[in-house]
Design goal:
With 215 residues, the protein is an all-alpha fold. It has one domain: Serine Threonine Protein Phosphatase 5, Tetratricopeptide repeat (Alpha Horseshoe). A two-stranded antiparallel ribbon has the order 1-2. Helix 4 packs antiparallel against helix 5, helix 5 runs antiparallel to helix 6 and helix 6 packs antiparallel against helix 7. The longest helix has 23 residues. The chain is globular and about 45 Å long. The termini are close together. Homodimer. The dihydroxyacetone kinase complex is composed of a homodimer of DhaM, a homodimer of DhaK and the subunit DhaL. InterPro entries: DhaK_L_YcgS, DhaL_dom, DhaL_dom_sf, Dihydroxyacetone_Kinase.
Amino acid sequence: MEFTNRAGFAVVSAVIEAVCANRDYLSRVDAAVGDGDHGINMSKGFTIAGEELSKQPDADMSAGFLAISTVLVGKIGGSMGPLYGSFFRGLAMASKNEPVIGAAVMGNMLRKAYDRIAVLTDAAVGDKTLIDVLDPAVQAYEEAAAGGGDLEACLGRMLEAARNGLEATKEMAAKLGRGSRLGDRAIGHQDAGATSCYIILEALAEASLRLAKTG
């Protein structure tokens, strides 16, 4: 199963739409342990990126992810701008010279995206951050790929691990960021960054599979 980088621009559009559609939900999740502006900031960045990309009718998937990265780094404050900016730059850099996106290329994209985020944060699994979703998701993808799984199998395993990681954040005390001020009082609430990470991975996976199955 595979799809072309050019057709993959639909994956970029799906991610942008998913983040913007969940604006209010992300802010509600964030309000429980943070400032309540995560959805506002994320939606702002992805909306601007969508507007920029509307002026680039020939953009492929890699160019689309790079545009998102540029906007998030340059126009979104706080920690999420640089973190997600690095994530999307990783996706772009790992795919820019790949005309066709299959299981191996997608795995390289996810690993590069994760590695770029890891350089910027000390967060580890268990700290109630987006790493609690991203780390097990990428590991599950790579394990499925090592076992010979195709794109559908690898993305399916990835999403299952991501969902479990998101659910696990509900039982964690916040150790980093503003939520750390609440300590154990954050238990019972899922993390906003982990939530947006899951939404992004879900949109990426579902759009990729749609293309792979129809292409």
